[in-house]
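$ ./design --mode recover --in tokens.txt
reading tokens...
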């Protein structure tokens, strides 16, 4: 698969089979992630792989409570609250694995660096026939002391990209794209 096919075909997957993702496959995805560019070649990322479903449930519950307590006037708050209050809603969609990319070194561009690594990981997952989804619901909670403790993360790490990985239950349909606004200078 060429990179254009991966870019245009990758979708956020939210329904997975129970089939586990082999550790060597996750290793290959992380290898793709570390080939991302980073500011001044700092490569500030660290990876936490979670395959324990009890740990994922614990983080899901903690993240839901944290979001409900802190979301304030978010424009999507009403939509989010209905999901977050649902005891059966699992923010990780019962995916067999979570790969959390954290900034392990301080620097002004760790978020951008880790996001670039995350995109590489998701494209590599798609090319390997896997689904992925960046779980924004987990981000704020994982940056709290309780969230870091749930996964045993060092206090100095900054969790940036919680990405679930798994075998999709079915193909995800393409989402229409808006025409970009483009301004040419020169």
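writing sequence...
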């Amino acid at each position: 698969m060429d990179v254009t096919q991966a870019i245009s075909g990758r979708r956020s997957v939210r329904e997975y089979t129970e089939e586990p993702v082999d550790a060597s496959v996750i290793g290959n995805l992380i290898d793709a992630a570390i080939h991302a560019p980073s500011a001044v070649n700092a490569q500030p990322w660290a990876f936490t792989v979670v395959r324990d479903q009890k740990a994922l449930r614990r983080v899901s519950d903690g993240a839901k409570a944290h979001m409900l307590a802190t979301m304030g006037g978010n424009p999507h708050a009403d939509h989010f609250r209905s999901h977050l209050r649902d005891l059966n809603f699992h923010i990780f969609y019962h995916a067999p694995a979570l790969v959390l990319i954290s900034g392990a070194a301080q620097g002004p561009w760790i978020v951008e660096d880790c996001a670039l690594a995350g995109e590489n990981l998701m494209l590599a997952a798609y090319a390997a026939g896997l689904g992925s989804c960046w779980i924004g619901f987990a981000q704020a909670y994982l940056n709290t002391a309780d969230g870091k403790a749930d996964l045993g993360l060092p206090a100095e790490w900054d969790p940036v990209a919680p990405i679930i990985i798994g075998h999709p239950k079915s193909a995800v349909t393409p989402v229409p794209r808006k025409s970009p606004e483009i301004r040419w200078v020169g």
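exit 0
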